[in-house]
Structures are given as C-alpha cells and as structure tokens.
Prior knowledge:
Elements: H1 10-39, H2 57-73, H3 78-104, H4 131-145, H5 152-177, H6 190-205, H7 213-216, H8 221-250, H9 255-295, H10 309-326, E1 330-337, H11 340-347, H12 349-366, E2 372-377, E3 380-386, H13 390-406, E4 416-422, H14 429-445, E5 451-453
Parallel strand pairs: 4-5
Antiparallel strand pairs: 1-3, 1-4, 2-3
Helix pairs in contact: 1-2, 1-6, 2-3, 2-4, 2-6, 3-4, 4-5, 4-6, 5-6, 5-8, 8-9, 11-12, 12-13
Amino acid sequence: MAIVPFHHDLGVVQGFLRFSRAVALLVCAVALVVLAGWWWDRPLLTTVWPGQAAMTANAAIGFVLSGSSLLLSQHYPPGRSNFGRGLSLAVLAIGAVTLAEYLWVTDLGIDHLIGGPPANGSGRWPGRMGEPVAVGFVLLGGLGLLPARRWLYLREGLAVGLLAIAMSGLASYGIALAGKSELLFGRMPIHTALLLLLATLGWLSATPTLGLTRVATADTLGGALARRLLLPALLLPALFAFAFQLLQSWLGLPDTLAFVFMALFSGGVAAGMVWWAANLFDKLERQRRESIALRNDAGTDILTGLANRRALDEALAGLLRSQREHDRMFSLLMLDLDRFKTFNDEFGHLAGDQVLRITGQLLRAALRPSDLAARYGGEEFVLLLPETDVAGASEVATRVLDAFRDFAWPYRAVTVSIGVAQAAFSDGSEDLIRRADAALYDAKHAGRDQTVTAVAPPTVARSKI
Length: 465
C-alpha cells in the first residue's frame, strides 16, 4: 500500500511562522517588564495583579533568552543560528543550576544574576523559581538547542513535557487561589505558566512542516480539525479546575453542588465541540469533493493542481493568435527546480512529489487570476502572463524567487531558476519557449536561484492586408 505524503496548506504554514515570531516578541516583552519591576522595585510589574505570586528575576532572564533564541532560529545565516543555540544553552543552564540548588540546598548565585540594588534590602533577589519551573527551563533550553530535523523525536518529547508542566501549573492555579499554596504546581505564577505554554507553542510553530505541527498544517480534514480544537483542548483542564474552585471556595457551594454544575458545564462544552466539529467536517468534505472534481479535469495536472501540457499548449496558441490579430503583448516564464534530481535521490520520490505540490501552491499564490501556471514536465513549469511586458514579468519572477526562499521547506531549502521572455510578433510557440528555455539555462549556468531575461529577437515588419 503506497504511503501518501503530507500536503501542507501554504497559508497555514505562513500563519504558524508569523505566530512563532509574535510569541517570541511577546515572551521577551513580558519578561523585560518583569525585570524592570525587580530592578526598580515595582512589585506590581512582577505579578499579574497585586497579592499574587511574582515571576522571579532569573525566570524573566530565562524567558528573554529563550524568546531571543526563538527569533534568531528563524533566520538562515549560520552565525545567527549558532548564537541562538548559545542563548538556549544559557536557558538550560539557568534551570539546571536552580535544580542543583534544590538538590544540594546551597546558593550557587543563580537567584541574583543581574546587578543593581538588592530588592527590599535583602542582599539578593528574593525568591527562587519553583522546581517545576526549573525543570521547564531545562526542557525549554533543550528545545531550542537541538536541531529540529536531526533530533526531531527528542525535541517532541521535550515539548510534550513542557506542555504538561505549563498545563499543570494553569490547572492548579485555581486551587492555589483558594489558599492551598502548598501544592507544588500551585506555587507557579500564572504568567510564568502562560509564558512556558506560549514559548513551547512558539518553538513548535517555528517548524510547521515537521513533527507534531505537521498534522496541524496538513491540507486535510485532520489538519483542519487539529488547528481548531487542539489549543482549546489544552486550555479546558485549566478552565475546569479554575471554575470548580471558584464555585466551591469563592461562592461557598458544597462539593456535591459544585460537581453537578461542573458536570453540566463540561457536558455542554463537549457537546458544543462535537457539533462544531461535525459542521466543520461537513463543510470540508464538500470542499474536498469539489477539489477532486477539479483535479480530474482533463486540463489539470493531478499532482500539482496546475494546468497540464495540453492546457498550456491551448492557452499559448490563443495568446499568440491574440497578439497577431489584436497586438496584445504577453510574456512567458520558464521555471526549473534547482538540483531536483539530487533532492529525489537524497529524500525519495514521495518527498519530491511533496515539493512539486508545494511548488504548485506557491506559483498560484504569486499570480493574478488572469495568469496561467502550468506544469511543463518533470520539475519544469511555465507561467503565461497576458498583457505583461518584460519588466512586469521580471517583477513576477522576483516574487516567485522570494516565495521559494521564504517558504519553510520540510527537508531542505528548495530554490528555482527562471527564464523570462516577452513574446515577439514573429514568435511561434516553439520559438518563444526556446528563448525562455535558453534564458533558464543561463540562469542555471550563472549559479541558480535567479532570473535571466531572454534577448528579444530582431523586429520584423508587419505586413498589412
């Protein structure tokens, strides 16, 4: 039985990457506010609201380092990537040294990492992050330190552990609010638990086509369901625990009555999610049937969803006829995936098919509704751009190059070389394709991942009837 590879939704992949960058900035911003509160002795800045547990200074430093590492991880230059791993190593060290202080009951200096006046005249930064938070920083540092593809399963295990710690902290916060602060996870400040959760989701979202997140970015019913239900499912235990403690302790309801209300609430939530998921499946199933009907069309390439060679020949003939009869210009782009044979040899043909499908998505996203993208054969593609001169075609080619460079490819970066040719009055279909193909060859010869424009043929005088 053949294994069908994942087909990722391009828009969702880009959304995950934007979410990851936003999370990194948010984690850094919140942690810097907390550090400012410790530095200038403003307790309100270190807590969510007065009287609640404060995030410790060393935890805030760890979050700043982890958020910065997450930002740097999304840049390709090796220098930035290595520096980001160094920051993650520092995060791991903060958690490990704190755990060592708990194990050996000693002060290793991790609780007062930054200088300045001691808070409240105590001679040191007050408090020490709890044991679960320290373990969380060890896991968070490891998550950013390990390369995603080489250590994928270990990174996923670290992420699951982090999610467990963060969710346990959030779920037990309602109990801590009731005064039962002796609970291990109840000592975790709520904003610390939230930042651990967000940082974990940010690291997972930074590699949207790998591991756990590849299911959520898949262009399938399961992917759509995961995107909409996983995060609410993670937050429901914390919400239930908080609501139960609110009913029981703050409103003075007995245990039996509180359990009745919670049973009704949880049942209603579950029924609502089932109803919503059923509607989602119904909508997506109808869309899937329409998509299958479209792919089965005689003029469509089944693998990429683009026009096939037959549809390309018909469209090109029509544009050439329109140019001769109505003097309407157009341009043609010939594209070829760089080193695609090497990619297939290294990762297999299923991975190569996945690249071809993603290429189809990228090309459709870069074009106007009036343009045509077609698979010419193998890893070669053709773009037809009506009413477009060579300058406009070069802009489209640049847009396509940028789309390939910015996409988070699942195995390794994939680039494309492009030949650009504007149709001349004397061109036949073979002449135009030959000139674009020659320009494509020049782009390959010049180093790939670039565009070369074909030289226009000599002008031929038009005969008048």
